[in-house]
Prior knowledge:
Blueprint: H1 2-11, H2 14-23, H3 36-43, H4 45-52, H5 56-64, E1 91-93, E2 106-108, H6 114-126, H7 133-140, H8 144-153, H9 164-167
Antiparallel strand pairs: 1-2
Helix pairs in contact: 7-8
Amino acid sequence: MGGRLARVFRTFNVESRARREISKEKPTPAPRHPTSRLNELADHPEIQEEIYRKDDRLLTLLKDVYVESRDPPVQVKDGGGEHLPCKQEEKRLTKLGHLGDLDVKKVPKGKISIVEALTLLNNHKLHPQVWTAEKIAVEYSLELKDVNSLLEFFIPFTVQEFPKETRKAI
Length: 170
C-alpha cells in the first residue's frame, strides 16, 4: 500500500517539474583568479618570441650528445667451496595399500600416509594387545606421543548390520 502511495507522489506532475528544471538559467561559474605570470607574458611579446625561437647553438650541442649503454658483465658468485647445509629429510618406504600406483611410495620419517593411518588404526582396534602404541611407533618410525594421540582421538568407522527382526524395533 505504501509503495502505491509513494509512486503516485513520484509521478505527480512529472513533465511540468522536468520542464521547470530544464528552463532554469544555468549557474555561472566562479570567476578565475588572475595570475600574474600570464599577464606578464601577454604584456611582453619578446618573451613569448624567445620561448618559441630555436637556439641553434643548443641544438648542435644536443646533436653531439651520444649515449652508449652496456650492461656490466655478469659475475657468478661462487662461495668458494662454502656450501649451506641443506635439510635432507629421511624417507622411508610405505607399507603399500591396495591401490598400487595411486599409493604414496615414500614418506618422510615421522609421518604416515592415509592408507597407513587407516591400516594401523584398524589393526589397533582389532588386536590392541598385539598392535600397541610402542610397536606402531617402531613400525612406522613415529614418535610415541604422536601415536598415543592418534590412537586416542581417531577411531575408524565400523559397519554394523542389524538383523531383520531388530530393524522394525529401531
